[in-house]
Design brief:
There is one protein chain. This protein is an alpha+beta fold. It is 30% helix and 18% strand. The chain has a two-stranded antiparallel ribbon. The model has no long low-confidence stretch (mean pLDDT 90).
Length: 67
């Protein structure tokens, strides 16, 4: 994992659809991401949220190069 950040919604637009927290992880490669997702520590971390969160969204993306 290259980096990990988290925070709470502070938007004034009220478009969060009920989501209040974000956890963002950055990886150097898709292979690194895949290894992390399968890692027992990640599975345990993710499972901990299933009983406290009404819904969870996961988005994987590759940033587009600046134009």
């Amino acid at each position: 994992m290259k980096s990990f950040e988290w925070g709470t919604d502070v938007s004034i637009e009220n478009l969060n659809q009920g989501f209040t927290h974000i956890f963002e992880t950055t990886f150097l490669t898709l292979e690194d991401r895949s290894a992390y997702v399968a890692h027992p520590a990640h599975v345990k971390f993710g499972t901990a949220f299933l009983h406290i969160a009404e819904k969870i969204v996961v988005i994987d993306y590759v940033p587009r190069p600046e134009q």
